[in-house]
Amino acid sequence: MSTSILDATKIQARIVIPIVKALEKELGKERAHRIVGGAIAASYVNYRERLGYELNEHPRNEGMGEGNQPAFPVEREVLEDTETSYSHDITGCAFADYFRRIGEPEIGALMTCGVDFAAEGRIRPDWEFTRGQTRMRGADTCDFRWRRRAASS
């Protein structure tokens, strides 16, 4: 039986949290988070490339655990779904619940939320992606928004 992405993240957190704490002491919080966050984001993009993905696939298909995609432990409410735009709010997130419960939402954000922009830039370069808030950082929802970029002439 394979390990769920949530269980894998919990296992990784046992290693990553003490490393980040040590780096914070040596380098300062901002620099440590920038270095670790960048490394985790690059690693996640590499992971997604190994799994395979359809370049510029519509965001509505992301995170449902179909094909080679990871099944994210979230509850989402779709707000808009057209061929050129897609929006959903994450109303429940097991990642946020876990990291907030153990008192480490900032490091949780590095390990989970922080990969979104790097992954979207690689997986959907023809889509503009925004997210202004996350449950990990204390908001009620994570606001994921995509708009297909206009084709250049």
Quickly list its features.
single chain, 153 residues, alpha+beta, 4 strands
What does this structure look like?
The protein has 5 helices and 4 strands, in the order H-H-E-E-H-H-H-E-E. It has helices at 5-27, 29-51, 94-101, 105-111, 116-123; strands at 74-81, 85-93, 127-131, 142-148. Helices cover 45% and strands 19% of the residues. 22% of the residues are buried. The chain is globular, with a radius of gyration of 16 Å. Helix 1 packs antiparallel against helix 2 (29-51). It has a 4-stranded antiparallel beta sheet. The longest helix is centred in the first third of the chain and has 23 residues, at 5-27. With 153 residues, it is an alpha+beta fold.
Order of helices and strands: HHEEHHHEE
Principal-axis shape: globular
Q: What is the first-to-last residue Cα distance?
A: 49 Å
> What is the strand tally?
4
What is this structure's SSE topology?
Blueprint: H1 5-27, H2 29-51, E1 74-81, E2 85-93, H3 94-101, H4 105-111, H5 116-123, E3 127-131, E4 142-148
Antiparallel strand pairs: 1-2, 2-4, 3-4
Helix pairs in contact: 1-2, 2-5, 3-4
Condensed summary:
With 153 residues, this protein is α+β, with helices and mostly antiparallel strands.
